[in-house]
Design a protein that fits this description.
The complex is a heterotrimer of chains A (575), B (309) and C (326). Chain A is of the alpha/beta class. In chain A, 39% of the residues lie in helices and 24% in strands. In chain B, helix 11 runs antiparallel to helix 12. Chain B has twelve helices and no strands. The chains are: A alpha/beta (575), B mainly alpha (309), C mainly alpha (326).
């Protein structure tokens, strides 16, 4: 067991730490409860947990930057053997930057927008006595280069708003490492970035901290990413550490039920499981059957818009060009957000559109939903070209048959409407049923999305993100649509909640024969839920194929890059 | 950026035209022949009356009269006279310096007191200083400016004799200290509140936490990252107020008998002197438009994110 | 595989110390709370709100039933008696008499009506004008927005007090005698016509923000028409900043009325108002005598405005989305 030198002392030792926030005169909310962990010099450990698990609070306690009324209640934080939780301001100040560095979470808000990037890094050098004057300026350029920022000399003289998200995160890494700390706290350093950028930056951070011998405390919600990057894992749940140990051991043999849940539900890990593919095939079979029955009815009926075709939704050469203003008043710049996108959605199946930010995937969704007129191209719903719809009546019929579920669970419900009002609104708008019948329908819908009817009188702010998304799904189903467009519908949710909602969507599809157009940035989710995939980049479709084809045999370099960037995909799982 | 300035200058044209037209038409609604009012009690022959009506273009269609007015204003016609026969621009240029000085002094007091007090209150949010400042600023916002004016005039001018209670035509900067303070009071209260909120919000900003994590001392964090960022909205607010301060000077000038633009406007309106009234309004509008342009440009200097397109 | 170091051994927390909860369980016992109700709950806890409520309540009673506060009616024909000039306080006349021999306290009580009428009506008119124009400009955008924005620029560029002076002076010359409500409506008109752009800008900004939120798209996708969407979703959600402004504006308008009266261009002399009484008092103040003539209406005015400013402050805090999160 002991090939490791024994004199190797931990760099940071957290012992039985308890952190709380004052919520009232005497009330204290405990955010971290009895946490203990050790980090050795040069080692990378990861703290994994969902939002509210206390992982960020733990990290902020280490560097004494707890927000608001946060304070250490009991326990010790030993840095190189000295307890810093009781140290005075001056001692903590001496540690910050020079011994413990921080790479914060959101690159957009963590740089001061009013100062040049170079100056903000220089500030750290000067404050920690590393360098001053011209020497510091030179060092700043070196640091930016080291962080992988090309053309560093020019970049140092630019303002944060001239940087992309990835570049800002690189600048923040340069800042965190500027004074060569012994420990770097990386608080979700890449969760705001696209997957391919995320991979690049984490790879770079890995190499950098390895060469410099910096220990890293990586805070993340992504178990796959944690296992890929760290040797030692700490899993937190509701303020407590539920499991910790060597990364692979935990992944292959999780012991605590919470860790088991995480391992089985993390999309990046679950996507390699064949079981999920098999389950999906069953759901599809059932859904296609139900859908064909509905199609037969539709073909007979005169009130429905469509003709009961097999391709319920077809996009033909969709293009959207936005005209932007140039720097001179008469200058106009055409920007093609979507270029020549075609696809077909078969009844009872799921087509996913995958792409990073700026790929135009959401613009496609808005055009399909008839919320944004396409510059050219057609959307054909069940044989009917949306362009040729006449009058409000036909448009309303289209709306009834195609409904959206949007990304942001905090913005997709009117905060002033009760849950009942929100779900009832489509029924009221289409003047369906009496008041009593509508209430019965709302109850039925809530039951379908597994919410108790007691939430009817509640308001969106009182529900969690996942619960709101259920309400949004119930609202979308109120009109008995045939197609549901999910625009990043699960992206803002915690892993476990996300898995739950995906399961709900699957169940509903099997039961109601729905067809989904599923828009997402997360290729890992696609494998769990979709049948066909459209990969988009810069407004164009780069690859369109079935899910298994894309995963097993990607035809395009870009698709391969996306697949490679799924964190933790290469880690073999046990069980 | 020059395109932006050009565009903004172009935009001021309709504002200027619209504002003068509105006031011009309003004053034209006043009943009675302005020439009769001009002559006062003296009997006036029809020929003289017609000659005067022609001179003031009173026989033309009202919009044509407005165009004549515009021509005179745009060319700064020195022969452009008010109803009393006095050149309008000379009157305005006599009255403008004292009001401008008054407003600028008020602006300076507003900036210094508002920012200093607001910053201290914001840094010590919910402390005793903050609470006192809150109460004081709300009270100052509530007391009418002329009541404060009279009280201060009585105390410092009459009772203690520190300042001269009235200013009069022959003014000096020292005479204007008291009126400028009275003029500034309401703005000081607002600036204080704004600075306080801005500082308090910035204290919890993410980039401030990052600055702390870098190892910066508290005083550096406050100076470079909290104050600098907090001042952007405050400076904008203070700048845009120069126009409203000049207009607000009507009351202050009345209390302290300052022979400024507010006084001039008040007399012109009361006499029904259309050329003078509309000219004064035109000057005020120009000052407002000009100041908002300056403030916008200043904003770009303070905040590099603002780009002009 | 690297060796395990001290402090990093495999650890599994006992399940009884870290019980699992159902994923994303709904708290079924919670009481429903709409945003407005939540704001009201916060408002109830605010001492500022209660202080302002007391002030406004007393004011409201004073406006409706001035007879409860004094037995003297300053509108009565024999209300002013020159033999009472500057007479000291006496039974039923707690502050004595003014220059014309009018009862200072009675005039202050009856003066509330004019001030409050101007403040309330001008606020209603301004908010209606500003809300409608701002909502239309922000929602429809394009040429409508340009037109409304330019128009509001024009009205905004003319200083409020100066514009009011011009309007009132002209109307005074057209209709010299207008009675109480006629005079009040002229001041209201002058204030509203030149103050609406402030609300317009605020409403326009709020509508622009709200109209891009996903629930608006969701409502469109349901089939709600543009107007329904504006009425049911956008305007209600854009309202809070306007409510705060309106409350503070009420105080500002009351001060403006008194400032106009001070210049002799507010309400005519035959109407009992705080502005007129203060205007009358100005010559006395210069000499430093009979200051009570100024103090009583000035205090009434200041307390009234303070009431609305405090209310605005309390409402702002209650509606602040930042406060909501905690």
């Amino acid at each position: 067991m002991t090939t490791q030198p024994v004199n190797d002392a931990p760099l940071l030792e957290v012992k039985d730490l308890k952190v709380g926030f004052r919520t009232g005169k005497k009330a204290v909310l405990t955010a971290v409860d009895g946490a203990s962990l050790s980090i050795y010099p040069g080692q990378t450990i990861a703290i994994v947990g969902e939002s509210g698990s206390g992982k960020s609070t733990l990290a902020h306690a280490v560097i004494d930057l707890l927000p608001g009324s946060g304070h250490v209640i009991s326990g010790e934080i030993l840095f190189e053997g000295r307890d810093i939780s009781r140290a005075d301001r001056k001692a903590v100040l001496a540690l910050r930057g020079s011994s413990i560095g921080l790479v914060p979470q959101d690159p957009m808000s963590n740089l001061n927008p009013l100062w040049k990037v170079g100056r903000q890094i220089k500030e750290a050098l000067v404050a920690n006595g590393v360098a001053t004057g011209d020497a510091a300026d030179k060092r700043v350029v070196e640091l930016l280069e080291e962080a992988g920022l090309p053309d560093a000399e020019t970049r140092a003289r630019q303002y944060p708003h001239e940087f992309s998200g990835g570049m800002r995160q690189r600048a923040l890494i340069a800042m965190g490492l500027a004074s060569r700390p012994k420990l770097l706290i990386a608080d979700e350093p890449t969760s705001a970035l696209d997957v391919t950028v995320q991979k690049q930056i984490l790879d770079h951070l890995d190499t950098l901290t390895d060469t410099l011998g910096v220990a890293v405390m990586l805070i993340t919600h992504d178990l796959g990413l944690a296992a890929e990057r760290a040797d030692h894992l700490v899993v937190m749940y509701r303020g407590k550490i539920v499991e910790s140990g060597p990364a692979r051991e935990i992944l292959q043999d999780p012991q605590h039920p919470y860790t088991k849940r995480l391992v089985s539900n993390a999309p990046s890990l679950a996507s390699q499981r064949l079981s999920s593919v098999r389950a999906r095939a069953e759901v599809r079979e059932q859904a296609v059957q139900t859908a064909s029955e509905i199609a037969a009815e539709v073909a007979e009926s005169s009130s429905a818009l469509g003709e009961g075709r097999d391709d319920i939704l077809v996009a033909e050469n969709l293009t959207k060009i936005f005209t932007l203003r140039g720097s001179k008043p008469w200058e106009k710049i055409d920007f093609a957000a979507v270029e020549d996108v075609s696809f077909r959605l078969r009844r009872g199946t799921i087509t996913a559109i995958v792409g990073e930010s700026g790929s135009g995937k959401s613009t496609v969704a808005r055009m399909v939903l008839d919320l944004l007129p396409p510059t050219s191209g057609n959307v054909i719903f069940d044989g009917k070209n949306v362009r040729d719809l006449k009058g409000r009546g036909e448009h309303l019929r289209l709306r009834r048959q195609m409904q959206p579920v949007f990304q942001n669970p905090y913005a997709s419900l009117d905060p002033l409407y009760s849950i009942y009002q929100s779900i009832e609104e489509p029924l009221r708008t289409h003047e369906i049923g009496t008041k009593k019948e509508r209430e019965a329908k709302v109850r039925d819908l809530l039951d379908k999305v597994s919410l108790p009817t007691t939430v009817m009188s509640r308001f969106p702010t009182e529900l969690s993100g996942g619960q709101r998304q259920r309400v949004a799904i119930a609202r979308a189903l109120a009109l008995d649509p045939e197609v549901v467009i999910c625009d990043e519908a699960v992206s803002a949710l915690d892993v476990l909640v996300q898995a739950q909602i995906l399961e709900l969507l699957n169940d509903l599809q099997a039961e109601l024969g729905l067809s989904y157009l599923f828009i997402t940035h997360d290729l890992a989710v696609v494998r769990q839920i979709a049948d066909d995939v459209l990969v988009m980049q810069n407004g164009k479709v780069v690859e369109a194929a079935s899910v298994s084809e894309v995963f097993d045999n990607p035809g395009q370099e870009y698709t391969r890059r996306l697949l490679d960037a799924i964190p933790g995909a290469s880690i073999p799982l046990g069980g | 950026m020059w395109w932006y300035v050009a565009k903004r200058l172009l935009q001021t044209i309709p504002v200027f035209l619209g504002a003068t037209l509105i006031i011009f038409l309003l004053t034209k609604l006043r009943p009675g022949d302005p020439i009769v009012a001009l002559a006062g009690n003296k009997p006036i022959s029809d020929e003289v009356r017609q000659a005067l009506r022609d001179q003031y273009h009173l026989n033309d269609f009202v919009l044509v009269q407005w165009l004549y007015f515009l021509k005179d204003v745009v060319t700064f016609n020195p022969d452009f006279v008010g109803l009393d026969g006095q050149p309008v621009f000379q009157k305005i240029s006599n009255a403008l310096p004292v009001t401008a000085t008054l407003a600028l002094m008020a602006l300076a007091m507003d900036a210094v007191i508002g920012i200093v007090v607001g910053t201290i209150a914001g840094l010590r949010r919910n402390g005793w200083f903050d609470s006192i400042t809150l109460v004081l600023s709300l009270v100052l916002l509530s007391v009418p400016i002329f009541v404060v004016g009279f009280v201060l005039q009585f105390l410092f001018g009459v009772k203690f004799g520190i300042f001269s209670p009235t200013v009069g035509g022959d003014w000096s900067v020292g005479d204007l200290i008291l009126p400028a303070f009275v003029l500034a009071i309401a703005n000081i209260a607002t600036t204080t509140r704004l600075t306080r909120t801005s500082v308090a919000n910035n204290l919890t900003a993410d980039h401030v936490r990052t600055a702390r994590a870098k190892g910066l001392s508290e005083s550096l964090v406050i100076r470079n990252h909290v104050l600098r960022n907090s001042l952007v909205p405050v400076v904008t607010y203070i700048g845009i107020n120069l126009g409203s301060l000049m207009a607000g000077a009507i009351i202050t000038e009345g209390i302290f008998n300052v022979q400024g633009i507010g006084n001039l406007a008040f007399q012109a309106v009361n006499r029904g002197d259309t050329p003078l009234t509309v000219s004064v309004v035109a000057v005020m509008v120009m000052i407002y438009v000009f100041m908002s342009l300056i403030v916008d440009l200043l904003y770009a200097v303070l905040d590099p994110r603002i780009r002009y397109v | 595989m690297s060796e395990t170091r001290p402090g990093q051994e495999r650890f599994v927390a006992p399940l009884d110390e870290t019980p699992l909860r159902a994923i994303d369980a709904v708290d079924v016992d919670a009481v429903p709370e709409s945003q407005w109700r939540e704001a009201w709950k916060r408002l109830r806890r605010s001492p500022l709100f209660w202080l302002s409520s007391v002030i406004i309540l007393v004011l409201a009673v004073m406006v409706a039933f001035p007879g409860l506060f004094t037995d003297v009616d300053p509108y009565a024909r024999n209300a002013n008696n020159l033999s009472n000039q500057f007479a000291p306080p006496s039974e039923g006349h707690p502050f004595g008499y003014n220059f014309q021999g009018g009862d200072i306290w009675a005039r202050t009580v009856y003066g509330a009506r004019a001030s409050v009428a101007v403040g309330v009506l001008a606020t209603i008119a301004t908010v209606l004008l500003g809300m409608i124009s701002g909502a239309v400009a922000g929602f429809y955008g394009g040429i409508t927005d340009t037109l409304v924005s330019r128009l509001s620029d024009i009205f905004f560029s003319i200083p409020l007090l100066l514009a009011c002076i011009v309007v009132i002076s002209v109307i005074n010359n057209i209709f010299p005698n207008r009675g109480f409500w006629g005079s009040v409506s002229v001041v209201v008109l002058a204030l509203a016509v030149f103050a609406w752009p402030q609300i317009t800008r605020q409403m326009r900004g709020a509508v622009l923000e709200v109209k891009n939120l996903e629930f608006v798209d969701a409502a469109t996708a349901i089939g709600a028409s543009k107007l329904t969407n504006l009425r049911r979703h956008i305007v209600p959600n854009a309202l809070s900043p306007v409510i705060v402004s309106a409350t503070i504006m009420l105080g500002v308008f009351i001060v403006s009325e008194s400032a106009l009266s001070f210049l002799g261009l507010g309400l005519p002399q035959n109407i009992v108002s705080w502005g007129n009484d203060l205007s009358d008092a100005q010559t006395l103040v210069r000499s430093g005598q009979h200051l009570v003539v100024m103090w009583v209406p000035a205090t009434a005015l200041a307390v009234t405005v303070l009431g609305f400013v405090l209310l605005g402050e309390a409402v702002r805090e209650a509606l602040d989305p930042k406060a909501r999160k905690s």
